[in-house]
Amino acid sequence: MSLHNNIPQGIGVIYVRYSTKKQEKELQVGTIERVKKKYNMTADEIYLDPGVSATKVPKDKRPDLQRLLNDAKAGKFQYILTYNSDRLARNATEHREIRVEMARLGIPIILCSTETIYDTGDLVGQLVQDGFTQFEAEQIRARTRDMVRTRAVQGKWFSGPLPYGYTFNEKTQQYEPTPEAKVHVKEMFAAYMRGQSFSSIAAGLPIEQNHGRKWTKERVRSIITNPFYAGKTRVFKSNPKSPNSILPKEKWVMGDSDKIVPIITMEQWEQCWHLFEQKRQGIVPPRTFNTPYLLKDLIHCYHSDEDQPLMFSKNYSNPSDKRKLRDRRVYVCSHPSCNHKIFAEDAERVVLQEVEAIIYRQAERIGAELKRQLEHELKELQEAIRSFQKANEENEMLIYRAGRELKAFAEMENKEESKTLRYVMLQYRLELQQKVQSNNALIEEKKRRIQYINDVELKSNTWADVLSEAEESKDMRRLLLYLLKEVIVYSNNTMKVVARIDTEM
Per the database entry, which stretches of residues form a coiled coil (predicted)? Predict the structure, then answer.
């Protein structure tokens, strides 16, 4: 609605929001003052939200916008002046909420950049306008992401600090590792492949190689999960809302770079990444094998059939107990009202006797049963993939038809009707595309599980190797994690060992 024949009366206020640049504020205020003077309007108080992005910060988190809405309900002014509708929101839902509330209160909002009134008069038109406001914000983000994506695919580095251990050689125009860092990085990757955790790797690194600061597990993780050390650039590794998180590799963009002198091979990096993914997904237990407590995270205290809390592992300490104990390790019930404990040495002796019987008598049967279970899981995974693929074929056909409809709408003589129909069809096509992307992510997740089953769990003699190696190397911790489901301790310290499969003959 044009402002020319609808000049509001009474006292008005001004709302300004800008993200970063001072010029943005000056442009908005200058335009508002010009319109205010042109139509002889009175509006002196300014509601200001500086340094705030409407895309990233919802309206209920912007203090002065909330104050503006509350003052409007209190009847403190008769109209609002702002530069443009995108100062209020870049989300169609928020636009609709603000517009409906202001219409209910009878308070018009004047958009000074176009000298129009932000109202509910043309609902469809406003929905389209709000959608394009949101679309504009998304386009800005998309252009930035496309630029970053292109540079990554081309193997080009971005601004910011280089990964640990690398410097830029002006003469060769390459990113080269320092000799010391090269040694330590190789050791980190080798240690991780041996089963060491990020924490244990960090504990063994010299602080001199980290600018005199203590190494952390987060620092080590950032190195192990970075393909730069294998000669690749990458972007979109982390979730912007949670910088410490790591997204699935399928969402990254990577590129080969002849400017990076690699420390390890891509095959070595992929092996470490595969192990990291297995631990994160729980395929390989994240609890490390390097612990003196063989039953850690396996042993439970029996309260009832429905209540069997985990028992914590700790060192026994009781000043009143005069006994001199060679082995002070104990497992203690985690329930606040239960203090039941059992000495680790006693519990582990019973469990190892039970496991020894399984090793010598039923290893072949256990392997066969596990193989049967894994083959059944493979069939279910493959069936799920076929279902997702079929759904995607149908969605792709609908996307194709939506594209044809969009072309037809573009050729309509009635441009206003064409604009509305195109907007609706664009939203429909976007929803279909998002479904396809979601299904593809699920397909990739199931393919990774299939690959792991085929490459590791179904390899011939895998379980026989685990059993024999555990006996020979005394690596019983690894064996227990694979073989046992839980160990239950009763009040009289009798125990029940529960295997992952039925081990009765």
Answer: 360-398
pLDDT in tens, 174-223: 888 887 778 788 888 988 876 678 888 888 787 766 766 889 999 999 99
Maximal C-alpha separation, the chain: 97
Are the C-beta atoms of residues 388 and 438 closer than 8 Å to each other?
no
Q: How far is CA 56 from the centre of its chain?
A: 17
Mind listing the pLDDT tens digit for each residue in 213-268? 889 999 999 999 999 999 888 776 676 666 677 888 877 777 788 888 999 998 88
Q: Report DSSP letters for 420-483, one per residue.
A: HHHHHHHHHHHHHHHHHHHHHHHHHHHHHHHHHIIIIITSTTHHHHHHHHHHHH--HHHHHHHH
In the chain, count of helices (H) and strands (E)?
12, 15
Say if residue 500 is exposed, middle or buried (CB neighbours under 10 Å; 0-12, 13-18, 19+): middle
User: Contact 424/253 with Cβ under 8 angstroms?
Assistant: no
232 CB-near residues (< 8 Å, 6+ apart):
155, 254, 255, 256, 257, 260, 266
Q: What is the mean pLDDT of the chain?
A: 77
3-class SS at 226? coil
Exposed e or buried b for every residue in 256-266, given b needs 16+ CB within 10 A?
A: ebebbebbbeb
DSSP 292: S
Q: Compute the distance between CA of residue 145 and CA of residue 112 in angstroms, rounded to an integer.
A: 32
Match 């040694």 to its residue by tokens: 183
Contact 478, 470 (CB under 8 A): yes
Sign, CA torsion 180/181/182/183: positive
Report the alpha-carbon distance of residue 107 to residue 125 in Å, rounded.
20
DSSP result, 110-139: EETTTTEEE-SSSHHHHHHHHHHHHHHHHH
* Run of H or E residues at 404: helix 344-410
Do 234 and 228 form a contact (C-beta atoms < 8 A)?
yes
Alpha helices in 231-326 (DSSP H): 266-281
Please tell me the distance from the alpha carbon of residue 371 to that of residue 257, in angstroms, as a whole number: 42
